[in-house]
């Protein structure tokens, strides 16, 4: 019998990939709020406001999932900075609510947190329980992590690196934006002093299902191999997609008036997730795969 997985944020970038790449022995049911266009074709999903406690409880009681994958979030750091109370309702309060319901229903909870919980000053980042987030988004995610761990010690918390890839027409990410800009013969600005463990959407989905299949508990980093700068990633992407004339402006974070704190180096220690069988892709491997199949 297939295991049932309830996915929040089904119409987001990660949700799209989870639905596309789910192993055959999982039945997925998802929810979305304001972006039905981002759903993977033929996905079984319905509209749900995760801040509506009663509606969420009814949905979980009706679906009776073996596991809940909570990917929904207000994930733009600048938006979180400008809308702290509003974004906390989804990033913290709705997350805690799901943990409470999972405890009552005895459903496994996998919560996708963020590499933004780290301050970027001591790479490689390890899964310490008390990192030092410097922006509101990271602080909200860490607060949610701690509350989930207290309520549901058997939950899995996955700190996800910055993701890239291609998804449906209703989703977007920085790589898709860059490609659109380059094809319009415009320029992209990329920082040479901002290091990330870039993670493809396909690899992110693979890592999540590794955690689910193993019934893993605790905190896990999930990122790509060979952390590089945004500028290096931009150069690789232009080559992988056959855009030799792509215009890339190389800058330092210090040269730009940033609206919120951006950690300098989020190189991830992936030892724990690799022990579950996850094999990290290098950025070049991920980009070549995307350029080859455009999906």
Largest beta-sheet characterization = 7 strands, parallel
Strand content: 15-25%
The strand count comes to 14
Class from secondary-structure proportions: alpha/beta
- Cα radius of gyration in angstroms: 18 Å
CATH homologous superfamily (4th level) name of the largest domain: NAD(P)-binding Rossmann-like Domain
CATH architecture of the largest domain: 3-Layer(aba) Sandwich
Question: Stretches where pLDDT falls below 50 for ≥5 residues?
Answer: none
Structure description:
The protein has 295 residues and is α/β, with parallel strands linked by helices. The chain has two domains: 3-163 and 198-222, 3-Layer(aba) Sandwich (Rossmann fold); 172-197 and 227-265 and 282-293, UDP-galactose 4-epimerase, domain 1. Helices cover 39% and strands 19% of the residues. It contains ten helices and 14 strands. It has a seven-stranded parallel β-sheet with strand order 3-2-1-4-5-6-11, with helices on both faces. Helix 5 links the parallel strand 5 (108-114) and strand 6 (156-160). Helix 4 (84-105) packs parallel to helix 5 (136-151) and helix 8 (230-240) runs parallel beside helix 10 (283-293). The longest helix has 22 residues, at 84-105. It starts with a strand and ends with a helix.
């Amino acid at each position: 019998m297939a295991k049932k997985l309830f996915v929040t944020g089904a119409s987001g970038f990660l949700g799209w990939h989870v639905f596309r790449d789910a192993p055959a022995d999982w039945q997925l049911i998802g929810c979305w709020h304001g972006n039905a266009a981002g759903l993977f074709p033929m996905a079984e999903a319905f509209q749900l406001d995760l801040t509506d406690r009663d509606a969420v409880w009814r949905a979980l009681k009706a679906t009776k999932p073996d596991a809940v994958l909570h990917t929904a979030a207000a994930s733009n750091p600048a938006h979180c900075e400008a809308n702290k109370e509003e974004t906390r309702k989804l990033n913290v309060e709705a997350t805690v609510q799901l943990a409470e319901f999972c405890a009552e229903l005895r459903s496994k909870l996998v919560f996708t947190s963020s590499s933004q919980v780290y301050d970027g000053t001591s790479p490689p980042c390890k899964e310490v329980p008390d990192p030092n987030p410097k922006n509101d988004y990271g602080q909200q995610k860490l607060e949610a992590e701690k509350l989930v761990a207290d309520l549901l010690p058997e939950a899995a918390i996955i700190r996800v690196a910055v993701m890239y890839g291609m998804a449906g027409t209703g989703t977007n990410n920085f790589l898709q934006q860059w490609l659109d800009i380059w094809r319009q013969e415009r320029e992209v600005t990329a920082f040479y002093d901002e290091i990330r463990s870039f993670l493809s959407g396909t690899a992110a989905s693979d890592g999540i299902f590794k955690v689910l299949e193993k019934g893993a508990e605790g905190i896990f980093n999930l990122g790509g191999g060979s952390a590089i700068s945004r500028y290096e990633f931009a150069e690789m992407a232009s080559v992988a997609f056959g855009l030799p004339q792509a215009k890339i402006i190389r800058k330092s974070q210090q040269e730009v008036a940033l609206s919120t704190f951006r950690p300098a180096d989020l190189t991830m220690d992936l030892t724990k997730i690799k022990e579950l069988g996850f094999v990290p892709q290098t950025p070049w491997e991920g980009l070549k795969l995307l350029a080859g199949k455009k999906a």
